[in-house]
Specification:
Number of strands: 14
Strand order of the largest sheet: 8-9-10-7-11-12-13-14
Order of helices and strands: EHEHHEHEHEHEHHEHHHHEEEEEEEHHHH
Strand content: 15-25%
Structural class: alpha/beta
Radius of gyration: 25 Å
Distance between the termini: 45 Å
Helix content: 25-40%
Bound molecules: 6-O-phosphono-beta-D-glucopyranose
Number of helices: 16
Length: about 500
């Protein structure tokens, strides 16, 4: 392990994400030796906290540790400093800069500055501009910006935000977080595809019939209704997580597994994804909103949601790529709140053999299943390959069997949290698992085209019950093509 040296500045230090994910993840990096002595962390927000108060909050955010680890956590927390900060007041940046300089000296952090924006997105632009104009971006070490979602709410606002960021930071200094890219099995897509002849050689429209991506959630919107109602599932999950996953599934082989090479291919994939006209969006996309369940509210009755909200809590869609590899192969996607279970999986459905020699008049019940490669992303990590084999015994019948691999529970526990991994990547200057501007831009263009229809057409909501896999129209989307979801209830 190599020690990283930097002064971190967290904007939004009192926020929920910082407490739930960022501080605990930094602590993990500390425990593993990626951070040792040479780092300082500044938290800023409007709250008027002391350093001690902040350090207490940081310590409390680290859960489930032993007594000895508590000592370690206290030492770790001693690297944290707090400064109350009004991000719109230029004068405050001088004080922040002084503190960064002081910590840089004190911890010998080599002038490396890592800024992290994890707060109301309305302030992202102004902070970036002020960091530059008030001289907080220096030539001494590196300057990096890690930025949370949402990255805009459509192409235009994303472009405005990006223009503001790139007025202060270069593209290669900007790390746009998509925490799905920090998940072990999402990263495994590349290993599986490009590390295996038997998989990559079949990875095209000659052998693949369709690909299905499911990000299913059991919870509703919980306490986030005020944000969620302005977003909806299309912006919240499809624009970022799902399209990132899809671009990794669809991309061509990168020249090498480096961030620059991978980005080129992901962008190319997203560029060849078909952008729908409103009428094509009407046939290829399905939206849903959850109704009341036995012990749960309908979305429209959740606190903070208007009684006539047209926000979708479910999306299913059929994506098409106009390129040589994928022409004719639909990528079906779906995601939603209050579905049957919390899981993420990818099912790659192969074509059946062109001729089924087992089906002949004397053998009327014969029927081969499609080969399916399932990538289990969460909660368990694993793969399964469904193949047809002879049923054991007299006679000759075939049956599908599964060749599978699941990570064992102990190993699973060692898997780093997405935020731990991504923070470490940012410290190492590796942006493979962050979204580049072009990827974000193409993803918004796809989403904006759908919103053009959805923003004017009034949906018939609510249309699915909690605990289901969404509205009936989601199943019909595949049935129309003579297909069905591999995962069904
Ligand atoms: C976030 C969305 O990006 O991802 C949430 O804003 C969603 O609405 C979450 O619940 C799901 O992430 P995970 O890692 O729990 O699957």
């Amino acid at each position: 392990t190599r020690e990283n040296k930097a002064v971190f500045t967290f904007f939004g230090a009192s926020g929920d994400l910082a407490k739930r994910k960022l501080y605990p993840s930094l602590f993990k990096l500390y425990q593993k030796g990626y951070l040792k002595e040479h780092f300082g962390v500044i938290g800023t927000s409007r709250a008027k906290w002391s350093d001690e108060k902040f350090q207490g909050i940081v310590s409390d955010s680290i859960k489930g540790i032993s007594e000895t680890e508590k000592g370690q956590a206290a030492k770790f927390a001693s690297h944290f400093y707090y400064i109350a900060h009004d991000v719109t007041d230029k004068a405050h940046y001088a004080a922040l800069n002084d503190l960064i300089n002081q910590l840089n000296k004190q911890y010998e952090a080599q002038g490396n500055r890592l800024f992290y924006f994890s707060m109301a997105p309305a302030f992202f632009s102004v902070i970036a501009l002020n960091l530059k104009s008030e001289g907080l971006i220096t030539d001494e070490g590196y300057n990096r910006l890690v930025i949370e979602k949402p990255f805009g709410r459509d192409y235009d606002t994303a472009k405005q935000l990006n223009d503001a960021l790139t007025a202060s930071f270069e593209e290669d200094q900007i790390y746009r977080i998509d925490h799905y890219l920090g998940k072990e099995m999402i990263q495994n897509i590349e290993a599986l595809r490009f590390g295996n002849t038997i998989i990559e050689s079949l990875w095209n429209n000659r052998y693949i019939d369709n690909i299905q991506v499911t990000l299913s959630e059991k919870l509703g919107v919980e306490e986030r209704a005020s944000y969620y109602d302005t977003s909806g599932a299309l912006r919240d999950m499809v624009q970022n997580h799902i399209l990132q996953i899809v671009s990794q599934l669809a991309m061509e082989q990168p020249v090498a597994f480096t961030d620059a090479d991978v980005r080129v291919e992901k962008v190319k994939a997203l560029r060849s994804m078909r952008v729908y006209s409103p009428s094509a969006a009407a046939t290829n996309l399905v939206r849903g909103q959850y109704d009341a369940g036995e012990n749960s509210n309908a979305y429209r009755d959740e606190d903070g949601v208007p009684a006539d909200s047209a926000t979708e809590t479910f999306v299913a869609g059929k994506l098409l790529f106009d390129n040589y590899r994928w022409s004719g192969v639909p990528f079906y996607i779906r995601t939603g709140k209050k579905l049957a279970d919390k899981f993420t999986r990818i099912d790659v459905v192969f074509k059946k053999p062109l001729i089924d020699i087992f089906a002949f008049p004397q053998n009327p019940n014969a029927s081969l299943s499609e080969n399916v490669l399932t990538i289990y992303v969460e909660p368990n990590s694993g793969f399964a390959l469904r193949v047809n084999a002879k049923s054991t015994g007299q006679g000759f019948e075939t049956e599908p069997i599964n060749l599978d691999f699941f990570q064992d529970a102990d190993k699973e526990k060692e898997v780093p949290e997405p935020y731990e991994r991504l923070l470490h990547d940012a410290l190492e200057g590796n942006s493979t698992n962050f979204a580049s501007w072009s990827e974000v831009a193409y993803a918004w263009k796809f989403v904006d085209a759908i919103r053009k229809l959805w923003d004017i057409e009034v949906p018939r909501f609510p249309n699915y019950i909690p605990g289901s896999m969404g509205p009936a129209a989601s199943d019909e989307l595949l049935q129309r093509d003579g297909r069905s979801w591999v995962y069904k209830l």
